[in-house]
Amino acid sequence: MKKQRIRLSLLAGVCLIGCSLLVTVLFQVQLHRTARQNAAVTAQLDALLPAKTAGITEEYNDTAMPVLEIDGTDYAALLEIPSHGVTLPIADRWEKRWLSPRVGRFCGSAYDGTLVIGGADHPSQFGFCDEIEHDTVLTVTDMAGAQFSYAVFRVDRVKNATGEWLCDAESDLTLFCRDAQTFEYVAARCHLLGDS
To answer: Would you say 173 and 103 are in contact if contact means Cβ atoms under 8 Å apart?
Structure first.
């Protein structure tokens, strides 16, 4: 009886370890797939975009950002953070799923300084969230080629994010994700750099 319990305990332990390894492998496969998809969409958007021009917020009466559809998903912008080697397509709609395949527009527009972009903290999206610093420069290019430049002026953290917290009135752009280590929401608050 005792030997049978030991065998069952060992078998259960081996099964748990096997399941853990399987989940880890599947997670890594999903991350690589997401990174490949982001790179492919970025290349397609780059090929479709007209020549980039300076985005001047005063020129827009309508805050609706144009979209380009690729493989059934509407994209509203390209996000570039040169200091972190990041270029990401921004879907027109944000998805709450942690393993969402894309970064998305939570709300707002680049045209009126209310844009909020959400992603996950894994390497194929906002894996840089713990490293982003004050004065980090980034650009958002809309699907008409207008490019807006921003600089991070503050990084906020909170346990429970609300829409009001995300849509900070002092920011022209907010990038946010949930830190998988601390389970806090991280928001990089950015100011528009003049009329880029």
So the answer is: no
Is there a domain that residue 36 lies in?
no
**DSSP alpha helix (H) spans, 49-186:** 163-166
Query: pLDDT tens across 104-125, in order?
Result: 999 999 999 999 999 888 777 7
Q: Is residue 150 included in any domain, yes or no?
A: yes
Question: Domain limits at 118?
Answer: 45-192
Single pTM value for the model: 0.79
pLDDT tens for 61-103 read: 888 999 999 989 999 999 999 998 889 999 999 887 656 678 9
- Rounded to whole angstroms, the Cα distance separating 187 from 129 reads 8
**Are 45 and 78 spatial neighbours (Cβ–Cβ below 8 Å)?**
yes
Q: What is the CATH classification number for the domain harbouring 171?
A: 2.40.260.10
